[in-house]
Amino acid sequence: MHIRDILASGETTFSFEFFPPRTPASTEKLFETIVQLESLSPSFVSVTYGAGGSTRELTHDLVVRLRQTTLDPIPHLTCVGHSASDITGILERYAHAGVSNLLALRGDLPRGASSGNGSFAQAAELVRAIRQFRGHPDSRGFGIGVAGFPEGHPDTPNRLLETDYLKAKVEAGADYICTQLFFDNRDFYDFCARCELAGIHVPILAGIMPVTSIGGLNRMAELAGGARFPARLLKALHRANGDPIAVQRIGIHYATEQCADLLHHNVAGIHFYTLNQSTATREIYLNLGLRL
After folding, report:
1. How far apart are CA 151 and CA 146, in angstroms?
2. Cα pseudo-dihedral 31, 35, 208, 64, rounded to 10
């Protein structure tokens, strides 16, 4: 379904993110997770895209397989390392596969690379190329999402310039914004207010990643470019004294409180970064009283 139709209902969307597995064993494990999450009837699911397009085929294959379920997949697409003809070819394949929407990102450089060596320097240019693509069977073309950063983009310390970049993506044709993970809802509300002031009026979906282990906490800090962990969360995790079950319960409880507050403030959508696991997301659904 086109993202404009999904968002037009005015109801809060709930969505999940997966990453493409690299081995047969991890593929089967992911689809065990998908079976468990499919019953939650998410508005859509997204599939990540490796740095420099390193998982291009894996992403495509997972998206095509997800099309055989009841889930509506939105593949990520990055412009780093891709020529204009590369992007056109990818768009043609997704259009042929019946994919309705994409999440357009600048993307990360491959490890050890110093430049992207592609046709597009910024995500706004990729958004514009997708919007100008005429090979989609839907007359509206692909629905397009872009990323937002409530805590700030790690490569753009100037927050005013960061907002300019985000507005350029929306003006190029983005239909919605999905944020990077955050742990303090005040950062999200401030981000939304700054978007409003800048004249950015598309729906903004809040990205939530529950802490499920201390190792995962450390990986989040690296992946998010320096995520801010509130002292209240860190104190609770410290009290767990390394007990993995207690850490998971604390993380799920904290994320549940975040989501309840977001729902109270009529958030447009909540996007769960699942790390290809189902337990935390299902527990949050139960805690919120959402349909299982």
Report:
1. 16
2. 50
Residues 6 or more apart from 197 whose CB is under 8 A from it? none
Instruction: State whether the Cα torsion 219-222-223-227 is positive or negative.
Output: positive
Q: How far is CA 95 from the centre of its chain?
A: 21
CB within 8 Å of 35: residues ≥ 6 apart? none
**Domain count within the chain:** 1
Whole-prediction pTM: 0.93
Angle subtended at Cα 151 by Cα 150 and Cα 156, rounded to the nearest 5 degrees: 100
Q: Which domain holds residue 271?
A: 3-288
The full DSSP string for 164-207 is HHHHHHHHTT--EEEEEE-S-HHHHHHHHHHHHHTT--S-EEEE
CATH at 203: 3.20.20.220
Q: Residues with catalytic annotation?
A: 17
C-beta of residue 183 within 8 angstroms of C-beta of residue 151: no
pLDDT tens digit sequence for 208-237: 999 999 988 888 777 655 688 999 999 999
| Cα–Cα distance measured from residue 194 to residue 246, given in angstroms and rounded to the nearest whole number | 37
As a residue count, the chain comes to 292
Question: What DSSP string runs through 256-278?
Answer: HHHHHHHHHTT-SEEEEE-TT--
Q: pLDDT grade, residue 194 (50/70/90)?
A: very high
End-to-end CA distance of the chain: 22
